[in-house]
Amino acid sequence: MQRFVYADNAGTTALSKTALDAMMPYLTEFYGNPSSIYSIGRKSKTAIENSRLKIATAIGAKTEEIYFTGGGSEADNWAIRSVAEKLSKKGRHIISTVIEHHAVLHTLRALEKQGYEVTYLPVNALGQISLDDLKNAIRDDTILITIIMANNEIGTILPIAEISKIAKERGILFHTDAVQAVGHIPIDVSELGVDLLSLAAHKFRGPKGVGALFVKKGIFLPALLTGGGQEKGRRAGTENVAGIVGMAAALEEAAANMDENVKKVTAMRDRLIEGLLKIPFSQLTGDPVNRLPGTASFVFECIEGESLVLALDSKGICASSGSACSSASLDPSHVLLAIGLKHEVAHGSLRLTINEDNTDEDIDYILAELPPIIARLRDMSPLWEDKLNGKY
């Protein structure tokens, strides 16, 4: 009997029962507008503030430092655009990396059209930046450093605390997109020293369409959305009460089980990596040590990633490719090119991302099904024969 294996948890996660149960009363019984003064409105408002406390506690923040958003992309946009607007008279230079999520990269591209300058730091073959490159890139007019905490494609975890220290020494605000990291590795914003941090609920078994931005106390950001006075006037719009409650419940659960989950998921990930690297002409992408517990990302030569994902789907395995299969571009992932892979190799990418919902039997099934799929796809590829004959 064919199994169903979900191995695209970096794309989104299944809603946990804990989160769903917490949400249900605010979808049915306590549906009042949190800005209302009658009882079911007050219930909603109380639920929001309780959730703010839970999220703050999970990442080592103060309750007044948590602002709710519609997701990680909105949090990234708000942080970057608002700092740029606020400090435009001081300078118009921003530092980032070439491996950021598109929520950051596209925001920076938009700012460049408005006259801002952006330095995109290169990365090495593991997806790590050079701290010396960062120091050398800082200018007198640098107003923001925005660097991803853990890359969404290859799983590399960057040295956020060290980056933060460099930023602080130069008096520069530091934002990190922690969407892939929150709920999966221990995070304490006070220890990291970050000024702004983005997160999204659906990456840690919370609902889609809700996220948060940590804004360090003392930093006042202009509002991205204007309208009502929600979120202390900084983020207008009637709050997604059920979503906020579900996010808080999911993150609280993830934090409580962090050690156990990391141990379990890392063991499954390592077994997956060990097994798949036995496939000829395969390569692990990303940092083999400093990587997210659940991310196993590869390239397989003489394979098209999209064909591989579709073939896995026919076997009940959900995975993703790093190549641009959903866009008009024929270029592979910008992240894979940034770590030095050739175009033809980067096209054969596969990202398998697991979490605590996965089992050892899931790993067994992937290890059994993936090698013959790759063999079959290679047999159909004219490049494979050239590869075997030394012509490719």
Q: How does the major sheet shape up?
A: 7 strands, mixed
CATH class of the largest domain: Alpha Beta
Query: Total domains, how many?
Result: 2
Give the end-to-end Cα distance, rounded to a whole number of Å.
39 Å
Order of helices and strands: EHHEHEHEHEHEHEEHHEEHEHHEHH
Report what the structure shows.
By secondary structure, the chain is α/β, with parallel strands linked by helices. It has 2 domains: 17-256, Aspartate Aminotransferase, domain 2 (3-Layer(aba) Sandwich), CATH 3.40.640; 258-388, Alpha-Beta Complex (Aspartate Aminotransferase, domain 1). It is built from 14 helices and 12 strands. Helix 1 (17-28) packs antiparallel against helix 8, helix 2 runs parallel beside helix 8 and helix 9 (258-276) runs parallel beside helix 13. The longest helix is centred in the first third of the chain and has 21 residues, at 39-59. The two termini are 39 Å apart. Residues 323-328 have low confidence and may be disordered.
